[in-house]
Amino acid sequence: MDKSVPKKKSRCDSVRDFFTSAKFLIYMGHALSTWGDRMWNFAVAVFLVELYGNSLLLTAVYGLVVAGSVLLLGAIIGDWVDRNPRLKVARTSLLVQNSCVILCGILLMLVFQFKEQLVELYNGWILTTCYILVITIANIANLASTATSITIQRDWVVVVAGQDSSKLADMNATVRIIDQLTNILAPMVVGQIMAFGSHFIGCGFISGWNLCSMCLEYMLLWKVYQKTPALAVKAGQKEQQQELKQLSPPGDLENGQSPEESSQPLMSENSVVAKADSHQENSCCYQVMEPLRTFKAGWVSYYNQNIFFAGMSLAFLYMTVLGFDCITTGYAYTQGLNGSVLSLLMGASAVSGICGTVAFTWVRKKCGLIRTGFISGVAQLSCLMLCVASVFAPGSPFDLTVSPFKDIYTHLIGEKILPEADYSLTTVQAGENTTTAAPTEELPHLQYYMSVSLLFAGVIAARVGLWSFDLTVTQLIQENVIESERGVINGVQNSMNYLLDLLHFIMVILAPNPEAFGLLVIISVSFVAMGHIMYFRFAFKSLGRRLFLCCSPEQKVETVDSPSLPTTV
């Protein structure tokens, strides 16, 4: 009897398989997690401004605490991710993150409801304690979110993709597109809820969302864990099993003796040394110094990685004012752009970022991963030249004769910040005795907008190269860092990113007036250029002159000298 030829899957079967695959379940879990994160990150800044009388003080303190915590604890968090089973890490970080957000939301609801009474209790110290608790709990939530990001985006995604580099690139690009979309839509939704309802309702909505999302996310991660058996075993467990097999003599295995049994005499001979080591490890001083040793070992390991310069190049891109944060938004207000125009520009920036993620997958297939980073860097720098040109274009307020330290003391402790949506206006203004008013309705001459138009044209166009470059470095770290060090290396990478981000805020504090913003633009472009020079050094060391030969990966195999297994790029 002839064997029947297997039938091809129908379109319905293919669609069903996709929606039940581990890859799609990871997308869904990431979308839920990112949506909650974006809502909370947007809302907590607004809540802190509202609580402290339309002042940016609490928001600035919160940002400093968050950045400093990740900077100091990034390596330790990554080491914890490496040392524990994947499901335990995902479950713990998910539970801590969402529980902290829920608790913080409830606390904020109580503060908004009883603020007047709290002000009168113990001369306002109860209210101050509430502020400290909100910032502390929110910081713990951010640290847990960092752990979740490392374990899911930097580890689980790699395991689910298997040894398929193209599949890994597609998954990274899809995850980044989800980030871009949620970064726009989530703040819009929670902003509308707070605008048409109240801050009290906004806190309740976010707390309820995180409660429901936590259950759904864990269910999705559990499904992914069941569908991907490789997630159950980490590299450390595999290496221990292999070492036991290599240490056991062949004769012992022939006699039916297990590796553990055959190693018993060896352990008894070294029992004195083992007891001394265990006594040292159990000492109080040793345990106190353990986080410092982990911190040092993580940074040393990061420095010794073959992708060190690639990671540093990505971190240097954070030392810039050329992004859609409160600094650039505030500068735009001083140059006559209103909120409506800025919202359109932010939408265009998101579309540009999505185009960058799509371009990444296409260019990587044509030219290889390392060359994609080089091409993306050239594209980003070329677009940023428009920002440099904007400094000297008509309408630019650039004037180095105005001291950047003018009345800086008054600026930092100064006056009332503009109410509601205009509170960010004064964050980049010079320290005058009066707050700059919103732009007048009378439109100035067309040349007045030439400088700011070139600035935002460069910023938006550069997002294509920026996000493509970010995906390149992310995948290089995923493919070239051994599995047992994947968490700690990504933790140190996050710390480096936050360090350069902190430096860019310090730079703005030292030169807050619009006349000095052009200098900040030039410094930002210089740091971006230094970052891409570092990447060029890494790429040229990896490929040599082949870097300039844009051949397909099928014609030429790109490998990076790495302590791990060779990786086809």
UniProtKB/TrEMBL annotation:
GO molecular function annotations of the record: iron ion transmembrane transporter activity; metal ion binding; peptide hormone binding
UniProt KW keywords: Cell membrane, Ion transport, Iron, Membrane, Metal-binding, Transmembrane, Transmembrane helix, Transport
Annotated region described as Disordered, given as residue ranges: 243-268
Transmembrane region(s): 56-81, 93-112, 124-144, 307-333, 339-362, 374-393, 448-466, 516-536
Localisation: Basolateral cell membrane; Membrane
Extent of Polar residues compositional bias: 255-268
Pfam families: FPN1
CDD domains according to UniProt: MFS_SLC40A1_like
Cellular component, GO annotation: basolateral plasma membrane
Membrane topology: Multi-pass membrane protein
Superkingdom: Eukaryota
Broad class of where this protein is predominantly found: membrane
Gene3D superfamilies given in the database record: MFS general substrate transporter like domains
Family: Belongs to the ferroportin (FP) (TC 2.A.100) family. SLC40A subfamily.
Role: May be involved in iron transport and iron homeostasis.
This protein's name: Solute carrier family 40 member
Organism expressing this protein natively: Mastacembelus armatus (zig-zag eel)
